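Practice set, problem 2.
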Amino acid sequence: APPGLGQGQGRRRRPSPAQSPLEKVTAQAELSLSQLTGRWFLVGMASRCSYLSEHGHRLEATAVAVTIPDGQSLAISTFRKLDGVCWEIRQCYLPANAHGRFLLKGRGYGSKVDVVVGETDHSSYAILYYQKGRSISVKLYGRTSQVSDAAVDKFEQHIRAVGLSEDVTYYFPTYGFCDSADDFHILD
């Protein structure tokens, strides 16, 4: 081996990986999964997603149904329109290494999404973080399609805390929700 390579003091250290944005996020302390069940509405989202920046003007009202199939996972059914047809997208958030943290496994390599329930009062609003790779998004859900100004303020504090801003924040329509989808419009 060339002199100094892999020997003692001259050895170069690999830099430690940068901390993931989600590692800085604290999960809701008194999170009750059973109280998260039921219907929620997607009120707002902050994300640097290029699709949102290009198509944010075409957002559709989105409703979500949450169940707890095994006492620890979240089964999420998302109902939204696409080209005027109601679709249901089914996902399962598996418990991760800590309370309030979940893992959404997608199809293919690198398609996992880390999810953290950042804050909720269980009865009117919930703020969730989603991270895929190094990209982070924050979503505000409400038990109704409109939430209090206080909940919106909290949401905006959360998005700023992870380096997002108003220019990448989108609010969803408060009308035109789907309640179901036929068997031909369900994605698992």
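Problem 2, part (b): a different protein.
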Amino acid sequence: RFSSDEVIRKRLLIDGDGAGDDRRINLLVKSFIKWCNSGSQEEGYSQYQRMLSTLSQCEFSMGKTLLVYDMNLREMENYEKIYKDIGKHEKIIAAAHEKISECKKQILQAKRIRKNRQEYDALAKVIQHHPDRHETLKQLEALGKELQNLSHIKENVEDKLELRRKQFHVLLSTIHELQQTLENDEKLSEAEESQETQMEAEAKQ
């Protein structure tokens, strides 16, 4: 004997794809009832053959559903494997990106070192052409004063630029206020003209 849950489970398995197997079960039950109530041997044998045919169809559908279920399970396992492989590849790619970033940093550092060496070589050549230390110190002192002078000039220019920026901001604010005043005056003038026109119209009436 089957419990109600087992009957429902088998019924869902048989009619899993909705291809009319539920109707076949109903026909099977009706055929069984007719077989039980059959009067003659020929009629009973006919109903028996129909039941066997319907059972075969239901078993075929159930087997197909189980095959589809197993295939879905294998597909899920395959997808999980692919997902894990993708995760591994992503880690490898991330490590490669990190390695590339580190190589770029090393290349930049090598370029800076090469540039510094070139500057050192150029400076060494200048020193060789100017071996007099006293003269070099005088030139360095002159350059220091010039640099200080340029620094003062830069500060003055920045102060002037900041002042001009503030003045320009004040000018823009003034222009905006003036424009707002003109617009208000224009609206007031239009209102007065409209009022005068209305008064003239009322006077004519």
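Answer key, part (b): The helical segments are 4-14, 21-36, 41-129, 133-204. The CA atoms of residues 132 and 138 lie 10 Å apart.
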